[in-house]
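Lab notebook, bench 4. Still working through the backlog of constructs that have no structural model yet. Next entry is a single chain of 324 residues. Request: give me the structure tokens for it.
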Amino acid sequence: MKIAGIDLGDRPLFLAPMENVTDASFRYVCKMYGADMLYTEFVSSDGLIRDITGSLSKLVTYDYEKPIGIQIYGHIPEAMVEAAIRAEAAGPDLIDINFGCPVNKIAKRGAGSGMMRYPDKLLDITKRVVDAVKLPVTVKTRLGWDDDSKIIVELAERLQDVGIAALTIHGRTRCQMYKGEADWTLIGEVKNNPRMKIPVIGNGDITSAEQAKNAFDRYGVDGIMIGRASFGHPWIFKEIKHYLQTGEYLPPLTVAEKVELAKIHLTKSIEFKGERVGVLEMRRHLSCYFKGLNNFKETRLKLVTLTDPNEIYRTLDYIKETWK
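Model written out:
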């Protein structure tokens, strides 16, 4: 599969951009376990053009992450164009436009999946961004606003016509949020539309290697994007790749292996963000790496309240010795 000139190989796996999750340290461990394409957390176009520090910091990527895309969102065409130009200057491999985020504070002001109510404006913004930058531009979107307006099949054609290089589709409407099941039949309909020539990446409810294989085989998508299932489980990319290649499941990670992963992740978080912020932002991950361990409540509480990195490392060693 290729996005413009970016060769991602056969049946590539994408890490979905997720706010407060896909920072540089999490991207590092997902890359370590085989994610083929990475994305930054999504970046507000308004924040970029106003030089807000939090938005600017999300533009920072590293050579070992390549290929990587910077994802932007917004609802004002001029701001989106300016944001795309600034994002391009940061040196990613592509620019991705978020027309899929369903959260109220974004969608209800017309950005993210809120744009699904205004397809002509969505297309106008996309064309302006495509024309403004030299990098490939891709789009991530949903099936439509609600069950009565699933416009994705026609919209996909129109997005292709204005020049995007690939399309990622989450198999829910905006009004579904993350409830119910993702509908992959419409994703497959887009992929199998003879007019579609660009790659189509499917997203939604892929939580296992077997589900990933079924999505490739049944719906014919070019790639699969993994979002929430990677949180606390970044080795899912390795599990899926192994299953696709061999038809066999990898054995689950041992507690000792999870401890070593957590140490790497924590070290990178501190390296990228400094000790205080690095520790604070690792807490959400540390609380998930060891789900399912018996009699773990007290130790989990330590992991998410300690502030001294050395104490956290010692607690991780204690976990390795206690839950063998």
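Notes after review: The mean pLDDT is 93. The domain at 255-322 is CATH 1.10.1200 (Non-ribosomal Peptide Synthetase Peptidyl Carrier Protein; Chain A). Flag for follow-up if needed.
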